[in-house]
Every structure is written in C-alpha cells, then in structure tokens.
Amino acid sequence: VSVCFNYTSVPFTMKFNLFSLVIFGILRLSRCQNQFILGFNKKSCDTLEPMYVLEDYTHIKLGPNNEEKSGEELKEPIRSPTRYNTRNPPVEIKIDFDQYRRNREYKIRLEASRFFDGYMLQVQGKRDGNRTYVGSWKSAKNKVPRLISCNGIKNAGLISKKRPVQYGNQTFYWRAPSSNAGPLRIFVSIIFQDAYFILNSKEITFNAYPLSLKGCGKSMSCFRYCKMEPFCDADETEYMLTISEDPKNPESVMFKLGGKVNGP
After folding, report:
1. CATH number for the segment(s) 83-206
2. Could you tell me the pTM of the whole model?
3. Domain ranges (residues) in the chain
C-alpha cells in the first residue's frame, strides 16, 4: 500500500488510537511520489522565480529514502507560479547597515507577519549595466537554508530546502566581497501558498575604510596609527595614510587618508 499525505494538514487534536498507529505505520513504510511543491534551485538564479519540485520527506522518515528524487523537476508543469504584487507583503527585509566594507560579515533578517513556504536570497550589484552576484552567504547552524552557486559564483544564493514546513522570522549572515563591487541591493523571493513575490532592500554603498594595504612596501608607502599597540590590524587603526604614484599621472603623487570618526 502506498499512501501520501501532507502532514501539516493533520489536526493537532488527533487521537493516537490503534487505528492511528496502524495508519502511521503504513505511512512510514510507504513512498510518496509526484508530490510537487513550489521551491527553488539553481535554475531560479537569474529570475528568482520558484519552480515545481518534489517534496523532501526524508528528514521526517515517512518512507524509504527518496533523496534521489527530491531534486527532480516536473517535466511539464501543470501551471506557472503566480507572482504577487508587493504593496503589502507579509515579509520584510531588515538590515542595520547602509554601507559595506571589505570582507565584513553582516546580519540580514526576514521579519514575517504571516508564515510563508519558502525563500531565496541574493545580493546583487550592477557592473557595466550587467547584474552580478556579490559576496557569499554563510551556512546556518541549523542547516535549514541551503547554499547554492549562481552562474559559477560559489555561495551566491541561499534557498530554503524542499520541505513541507512553513517559516517565520529568519536570520542570515552574508560576507561582503574583498573589493569594491559598487552599490548593492539584497533581493529575496518569497513563496506564499501557491504564488511568490520578490522584495529588495534599499541601496547599500561601499565604504572604502579601512584603506587597502595591498602593495604596501612595494608600490606605495603606508602609515597607520594604532591607539593601544605598536602594531594593529587595518580595522583597528585610528587612521591610515597611503602614498603612491598616481596611475593616471606618473608625475603626481596620490595621498589617501582614512580614519574613524567619533560622535558629534
């Protein structure tokens, strides 16, 4: 006997009588097939549009291991997913920064007023008019989100796993690139029931401090003032000064000065 069900529809008040135990025994031995839900994969990178994918029941042990089938797509989708407008979205992107620095790690939250069914996150920039994927997402301790590569960029996307569960508030961590990638925005695609919507953050600009120390002692002279120790990392300096030849005018010298600004 093969029985498939959506466990989220089982009432919490269900009495575990003998009949219930028999049913659950059958469910544990059955294989759920062709149970498609909206989800994300690498093919969603360019559009942030979800696709119909097989549900992954393996983590709740409802039957034999069907992990091999969990990534399959429906060859002929019954229908295309509907895209909602974002006038009053049940999810918001919350960040406490409007600039990013090299190699810094930043916290990004999704705050939800209603439960939702899946998500995909990216940080995008534009270089020469083309969309780029910037920085890298960090793996969460609970391993619920899944890291994916987009167009060869490792960990450029973060997606929810194909599971029959719903999500509330979520916290993620993103690591900024090692160089100036220009202005960026955070994009998130949210699956809500049988549709989806796409949100984006305000523009995030690059903060050049601390100055890059690449080439110090070779192509430029570098000075830094450390408050407590004779030597300190670039992030810990009170101010830094670099002197180098101006690449646009070899007869000129270029000075760059960066430092911390105290409160008003």
Report:
1. 2.60.40.4060
2. 0.67
3. 7-71, 83-206, 220-259
